[in-house]
Write a structure and sequence with these properties.
Layout: H1 3-33, H2 42-65, H3 67-90, H4 94-111, H5 114-122, H6 127-136, H7 138-152, H8 161-178, H9 198-202, H10 205-234, H11 239-254, H12 257-267, H13 269-288, H14 293-318, H15 327-355, H16 358-387
């Protein structure tokens, strides 16, 4: 853990602070402003739709500007989008709020590449640990996000406007931390596309499975997490309980980062990802067993750990599917699949939890979990056949 990785870990923590607050309040703000109840999570959906729409643009900016300038641009967008969100809430304009979260999606797509930048800073010998440690920076978001949301959601006369203003300050802190990181500078050679076409990269079984596992694992996590604040409100649980559940969920997402990389280095990515699938199944069983605070708390904690194993494993697995010359388009494609799935799950979570209920939402999440497990088993068997 050198200075650059430590600062990048801090940037990841500030990014997750932004994400946790967005998840904690966007659904509730949407629920209070939306013309119809099923539209409640459209602001949550807007954030990831913006990420999907920005994936190609971010990849292009990374190639032309290099890591540092591109990451700084994302933070500028984050600050401006947070201010626009605050204005939208103050003016009670639901559709402007949705637009602002779409704009914020550029930051989501941009900061989603921090984990890949960590692997490059560490080199080939310790990239698993570097990815894992930078992911562990999300613990800052686990602690700061819910507490900052709780402290600022009634700071101004308009509920939650203060929380959005606080996010602009979080983005400024990110700019400051990023200014001290030294990345490899963009060169003329790196600005010219070379290597295999994207379609050839995407045909590889290892790319298919890493992309599918990363996208579906993130999608299931988002499906249940985005619905949790609304489900808990419908169960008459206070916002302080919601903040506590989200805090422990995000701790589960990022605390394993201190050792996930070592597990992957010792046992391989596929076994660790398999454990992530099992944890997702246990989470669903807990959620189906009741709707008290402890059910939400334990279920979301397990969901967070399962996501960490799946997402860190899929990131590490994907590193073997492309060369340095191909990284921008390959990473852009990986991000696009994640954000497209997140967009679908964000929309589905609001519709399902408000029309079908928490129980059917959990039953529906079994489908992508089983598909993820099947993909991991297929790749493991394929590798075994090739090895023999």
């Amino acid at each position: 853990m050198n200075k650059n990785l430590a600062l990048l870990t801090l940037c990841q923590g500030l990014f997750l602070t932004n994400n946790v607050i967005f998840i904690a309040i966007n659904g509730l703000v949407g629920f209070s402003l939306a013309p119809l109840g099923w539209m409640a999570t459209l602001p949550v959906m807007g954030y990831v739709v913006g990420g999907a729409l920005s994936a190609g643009l971010v990849a292009h900016a990374q190639r032309l500007l290099g890591r540092k300038a591109s990451f700084q641009t994302g933070l500028v967008v984050a600050a401006l989008a947070a201010l626009l969100c605050a204005y939208a809430v103050a003016s009670r304009n639901f559709w402007l709020l949705c637009l602002a979260t779409v704009v914020a999606g550029y930051y989501n797509a941009n900061a989603g590449l921090y984990r890949f930048a960590a692997a490059e800073l560490a080199g080939t010998t310790s990239r698993e640990q570097a990815v894992s440690w930078v992911m562990a920076g999300g613990l800052l978001g686990a602690v700061a996000g819910p507490n900052l949301a709780s402290a600022t959601h009634n700071l101004l006369d308009v509920p939650f406007a203060g929380a959005y203003l606080a996010l602009a300050g979080v983005a400024l802190l990110g700019m400051l931390a990023l200014s001290f990181i030294t990345f490899a500078p963009a060169t003329q050679a790196s600005r010219v596309q070379s290597g295999r076409p994207l379609r050839e990269i995407m045909k590889q079984p290892v790319f298919i499975v890493s992309a599918a596992a990363g996208a579906l694992g993130y999608g299931v996590m988002n499906l249940l997490m985005a619905a949790t604040p609304i489900a808990m409100q419908l169960c008459a649980l206070p916002f302080s309980d919601t903040a506590q559940v989200l805090q422990w969920h995000v701790i589960g997402m990022f605390a394993p980062g201190f050792f996930t990389g070592s597990l992957i280095k010792r046992f391989g990515a596929l076994p660790v990802m398999g454990v992530g699938v099992i944890l997702n199944l246990v989470c669903i069983m807990v959620a189906l067993s009741g709707v008290e605070l402890q059910h939400f708390l334990v279920g979301m904690l397990l969901l967070g750990v399962g996501w960490n194993f799946l997402f860190t494993g899929s990131t590490t697995l994907s590193l073997s599917s492309y060369s340095a010359d191909e990284k921008d388009r390959a990473q852009g494609a990986l991000n696009f699949f994640v954000f497209a799935t997140l967009a679908l799950s964000s929309f589905a979570s609001g519709v399902l939890v408000t029309t079908q209920g928490w129980t059917l939402l959990n039953y529906g999440s079994l489908v992508p979990v089983v598909l993820t497990g099947a993909g991991l088993l297929w790749l493991a068997l394929s590798r075994r056949r090739l090895g023999s």
